[in-house]
Amino acid sequence: MKKHVVLYKKLSAPLMERLEAVAQVTLIENPKSAEGLARLRDALPGADGLLGASIKLDAQLLDLAPKLKAVSSVSVGVDNYDIDYLTRRGILLTNTPDVLTETTADTGFALLMATARRVVELATMVRDGQWKENIGPTHFGTDVHGKTLGIIGMGRIGEALAQRGHFGFGMPVIYHSHSPKPAVEARFNAQYRSLEALLQEADFVCLTLPLTAETEGLIGAEQFALMRPETIFINIARGKVVDEQAMIEALRNKQIRAAGLDVFEREPLAADSPLLQLDNVVATPHMGSATFETREAMARCAVENLLSALAGDRPKDLVNKEAWKHA
Ligand code: NAP
Fold first, then answer.
1. Domain that holds residue 87
2. Separation of 13 CA from ligand 1 center, angstroms?
3. Do residue 92 and residue 109 come from a single domain?
4. In this structure, are 297 and 316 located in the same domain?
5. In this predicted model, what pLDDT tens digit does every residue of 40-87 receive, in sequence order?
6. Which residues form ligand 1's pocket by a CB distance below 6 Å?
7. Could you read off the pLDDT of 212-262 as tens digits, one per residue?
8. Which of 20, 105, 173, 189 could share a disulfide with 160, CB 3.0–4.6 Å?
9. Cα–Cα distance, 169 to 134 (Å, whole number)
10. What CATH number corresponds to the domain at position 314?
11. Atom in ligand 1 nearest the alpha carbon of residue 101
12. Is the pTM of the predicted complex or chain greater than 0.90?
């Protein structure tokens, strides 16, 4: 009998075909709406596998799925899942690393350039018909090339950001991570720093680490106080790694120069968020991996991970390795 897969994210036609060749598929559209969530709850009792992203699958919800064998997330971040709970139940959790690394680093660099050179603010001025004379110092930005790039979380995306900064823009790279990375240091002439030293020294402070119990609220008032009025803060990790209110204060008080933000405490960001009142903020809609090519590659990766898990094989991108023993 075919396994039952509940999809809570639409797939392209070829990927849907690939999945339907081996599984019975139920697609839940708009899973964030009340009706979508009700449909998801109704489908869970029959589910052998789940595939999707961007909704919190907590224990209460997954208790409705007694047959569940695997959850395949179309993301690299796994903060929407209770990993201990999944492991206890022997449910495999997979993610989609690597395929989104370069695209997400591109987004990081786009934010870095946009904030430093005030691209959005000045382009809006032109669009609004407010470009009346040659621009002067009140509209000048600050250089990117040669400035110090500080990366917090030297993993796949951090490394791809370091590559862009070092080779493309001649930026000295400093970083903070759980542990020093000798190969990265050799490749990019990068230097390890304590978190405090990095915050004091970097011209660009970029967050590229996961949201975990340990990193939630990692950057708050105390950390913004260590940055300089020239510092530009970039977050392409997760909103909750930062105390958003403390960041707003730091931006308002010009404790830091600007922020480029792809992620927020609550998403979608409310239209009345104080962040949107600030000229020195460039805010994007969690678009780190959002290109046609990369989103398709992520979905393909998620489908293959799920099919492996349901076939009883160890999926390539298994997150909770301990669950494999129980699977
Ligand atoms: P990764 O390869 O696992 O890298 C994460 C790095 O963070 C690791 O090298 C780890 O250091 C470091 N780290 C973890 N906890 C830390 C802590 N408490 N202090 C210092 N460093 C810490 O992951 P990735 O593929 O680069 O992705 C990183 C994150 O980016 C994801 O988890 C996701 O939340 C986010 N992301 C966002 C978007 C977007 O659309 N904006 C897209 C993709 C990913 P060690 O190696 O030393 O343990």
1. 3-97+292-325
2. 31
3. no
4. yes
5. 999 999 999 999 999 999 999 999 999 999 999 999 999 999 999 999
6. 76-77, 97, 100-101, 104, 153-158, 176-179, 208-211, 214-215, 236-238, 262-263, 286, 288-289
7. 999 999 999 999 999 999 999 999 999 999 999 999 999 999 999 999 999
8. 105
9. 27
10. 3.40.50.720
11. 25
12. yes
